[in-house]
Structure formats: C-alpha cells, structure tokens
Amino acid sequence: MQQVNTERTRIGIVGAGDIARKVNLPHLRAIPGVQLVAVCNARPESARQVAGEFGIPHVVDHWTSMVDRDDVDAIWIGTPPVMHAPIAIAALQQGKHVFCQARMAMDLAEARSMLAAARQHPELVTMLSAPPMGMKAGKLMRQLLNDGYVGEPYHFRLVADSDMFADPDAPAHWRQRRELVGMNVLTVGIYGEILQRWFGSPVRLHARSKVYVPDRDGYAVQVPDVVQVTGEWGDGVLGVLEWSGVSLFAPDSTLTLYGRDGTLEYNFTRDQVRGARRGDDEFRTFELPADLETPWTVEHDFVTAVRAGGRPEPSFETGVAYMEFTEAVHRSALTGIEILLPLP
C-alpha cells in the first residue's frame, strides 16, 4: 500500500458555499495532516456557522486578510467567478498555493491574468476544480477513440439540457447574474473542457442564445437560458451542441459521436459508454474496467501536489483553454458571426 504523506498542510477557505460544505470541506478534513485554519464568507455569520460546523479556529472578515496570513499555506477559493482572479493573483503574490473552484474566471482576459501570475510563481501549485461530468468513464471513452473504435470521427451531437431554471416565477439564481459569473453560461465551459480532452481544440464556431425569462423578481436577466453552437474541432470533427436550463422532462445529457466505422455515445447522467460498429445489430454497453475508472478526488489531488510539488489537472492552462471556448461562444452569440479560434 502506498504510504500516505501526513505532512502538515494549512488551508484557508474563501467562499464556503454548498459545494464546499457538502463536498470539499469534509474531504479535506479527512486527509491526514490537513488543517483548516480559517474561513471567510461574504456574510460573517455564514463564516461563523461554517467554522463551528467544521472546527475551523479562525473566521476572517475579508479575503485580503486571508491571503496575508502567515499560518496559511494554501488558499481554497469557492466563491462565484467574480472573485476568482483577484483572490488567486493576490494569493500567489503572497506565496500561497491556490485551488480555484470552476469556472476559472469571469472572462478570458481574467483567466489569462491568472495564468500569468501562476507562471511568475512556478514553485507554487495551482489547480482548478475538475468537472464531475465525463470523469468516471472518461478514460474508457478516450481509449476507445485512440483505438479507432469509430474509425475516422466525422461529427458529434451534444445535448446538455436541464430544468434548473425552468420555474419562471423563481428569483434569479446567482448563476444567472452576469455581474457574478461573467461570460460563464450553464455548463458550456464544463463541456468545453471535456470536448478539448476528447477532440482537441475548437477551430471555429457559431453560437446563438436566448433568455426566455428576462425578468426574475425585478432582476433583468442577461445570462441565456438556452445556448446552441455549431463548430469544428481538431482534425475536422464537426459538432452540434445544445445547452438549456429551461427544459422540462429533459433527457439524459449525452454526447453521440459518429464516425466512418461506428458510433459512440457517452451518457453523462449515468457515466455510461455505449457503442456500435458497422455490421452490429444494436448498441452494446461497455463495462468500465477498474483500472480505467476515475474517481473525483480533487481535494486529495491538490494536497498531494502541494506536498510533492506536482502539477495537477485541471491546470490554469486548461482553464484558459475552456475560457477561450466560453468567450468565443459569448462573442458569437452577441454578434451573430462565426468566431475563429484561437482568439487573439
């Protein structure tokens, strides 16, 4: 059995929302040697509640005080994207390792500034939160593609619809507030990251979007409810993509890839891969070998990298790539024109 490194790692939490409280903090606390030193939330009473729940000794009123602390080795950023760049850059300048919740930043310019700061401090570990979608069986999908299961890939169709914003009478969710999320829309960036892994970088795309509920409890919504994209990836693979937050009774989120010799389907809702090749009568469901199954272990990956000096994924470079895709979608939907990538 591999020996566990129990070296002390002191972490300050900036932004302990639902994901942090339900997932990140319990996982971090379970890692030997990790000390949750301090927590900072937008509302001090919320920070005090989190501190009591997880036994965190210090509550900090403002994130600037957190990055200045001498008893913190790493900053864990769990805020909305609006605060990611300023906190990450300041933390790096103060000699702190940085973990940042996805999506990376408000826009491509901010993401690039974060990457530039990370490159100025190569001795520090930087990592973004990995998307859970497509992770569990992602290596199996990649292996099937590498083995030529579909032959030459021709085109794919991605459908990622949900009903999370389908109630027209609900107030605006923070993810629908442009001032908090910037150019991030629905799960566009998440799937952009997955597509990058499987098909390489996009080279051109055209997008359109629409807000179907423009007024939510007096708030003027600008973040789209639906986004549709057509594009080209890597070596000529075409894609048709749809995201929706207002689709009642939506089907599972799936990507279907069609090639010269066969078809592959990844069901993101079930983490299930199916396929059929020329001559088959029907789809088969692939068993997921244990050695190809990838668990979601971002907390362990980050702490291990801090202790061993590694370069965990998703990196800030990966984040810049998916933010470029996200920004291209935004620009195309705004202007109605096709966008060529990479962006200047």
Automatic annotation (TrEMBL):
Residues 10-126 form the Gfo/Idh/MocA-like oxidoreductase N-terminal domain. InterPro entries: Gfo/Idh/MocA-like_OxRdtase_N, Gfo/Idh/MocA_oxidrdct_glycsds, GFO_IDH_MocA-like_dom, NAD(P)-bd_dom_sf. Coiled coil: none annotated. Keywords: Oxidoreductase. One of its GO terms (molecular function) is oxidoreductase activity. SUPFAM superfamilies: Glyceraldehyde-3-phosphate dehydrogenase-like, C-terminal domain, NAD(P)-binding Rossmann-fold domains. Residues 141-265 form the GFO/IDH/MocA-like oxidoreductase domain. It comes from the Bacteria. Signal peptide: none annotated. This is Gfo/Idh/MocA family oxidoreductase. It comes from Amycolatopsis pithecellobii. The lineage of its organism: Bacteria, Bacillati, Actinomycetota, Actinomycetes, Pseudonocardiales.
